[in-house]
Amino acid sequence: MKRLTRKEEEAMKILWKAKKGFIKDLINLHPEPKPLYTTFSSLIRGLEEKGYVDHKAYGKNHEYFPSVKKEEYRKLFMKEVVSDYFGSSYKNVVSFFVNEKKLNAGDLKKLIEIIEKGEKNG
After folding, report:
1. Residue 1 lies in a domain
2. Which residues have C-beta within 8 Å of that of residue 56, sequence separation ≥ 6?
3. Which one-letter DSSP state was computed for residue 100?
4. d(Cα 73, Cα 104) in Å, to the nearest integer?
């Protein structure tokens, strides 16, 4: 499974949220500015070629649905981000968020509790 472009990720987020839909319906869920029908259709077909999307045919109309779960993609995405930007160190990720003031001592205590609970149940 390959990481997607920003536009592809936007389309997948819409499809994950909708669970399924025809191109017209998915475009209606797209934030402004809405893409052209042909542009979005090509994007969805490209995602289908990559294995992220599948469809059910109703004559000439296709109803699309995700064939990759959001959680699967999130694991791949996060693994690549940690590898590419943090030297494969999750400790560096946490340090980054602490330095950016996105995590505080209370958050870290909760993380420690989650880790300890996981170690006991693992």
Report:
1. no
2. 62, 63, 65
3. T
4. 28
DSSP 102: S
CB 96 within 8 A of CB 86: yes
Beta bridge partners of 57: 62
Provide the token pair at 48.
């289908």
Instruction: Provide the domain count of the chain.
Output: 2
Residue 65, strand partner residues: 54
Residue 93 and residue 115 in one domain? yes
Pick left, alpha or beta for residue 93 (phi over 0 → left; psi -120 to 50 → alpha; otherwise beta).
Answer: alpha
Residues 57 and 76 in one domain: no
Provide the percentage of residues in the chain whose pLDDT is more than 70: 99
Q: Is residue 86 part of a domain?
A: yes
Residues 18-57: tens digit of each pLDDT: 999 999 999 999 999 999 999 999 999 999 999 999 999 9
**pTM summary value:** 0.79
Residue range of the domain that includes 47: 6-66
